[in-house]
Amino acid sequence: MTYGKNLHAHPFFIIQFFYSTYWRQLELDLIEAIRTRRSIRRFKQTSIPDNLIHSLIDSARHAPSGHNTQPWEFIIVKDTRVKVQLAKTHEGSDFVDEAPVCIAVLANEKKAPSYFEIDGACATQNLLLAAHGLGLGACWVAVYDLQNPSFEKHVRNVLNVPLHMRVIAMVPIGYPDEKVAPVSRLEIDKIIHFDKY
To answer: Where are the domains of the chain?
Structure first.
């Protein structure tokens, strides 16, 4: 079987080229998103379309979880009065009410008693990367803190969260109103080990 002299003009090779180019670009975009994401704490007062919020949650729910338990749930907060209360959680959350939207990431402790916090953290990371990829700014505001249980208690009371659901984090989201400079990272050769520690 022969395709003639103009081999690469055959539809099979055109499709193959398209997909290989697409996946290379997707890989580059993903790595670039990971490397360039920054914590944003100042936001423009522009509302976020519901379809973008849906995309954020969709990305978060595709995070990995132990035994695929998917213990996460999310509370989308737009009400300014509620955000003002959330901003009082601790000294690092005082900007939460300035974001158009704040998403609380919850994890069901009954479904994943041994690793609910890890699963919730994975979903939160997906949420942050998706926000960056969509041109939005976001910041991980810690809530689940074994040394400071009052953080979670406060958010639980504000959002009426049942006891079996643990509050992992709050993620205020909006269009960025600041440019954050790159932060230094530890050199790779200082954090890797081969075969043994």
So the answer is: 8-36, 50-174
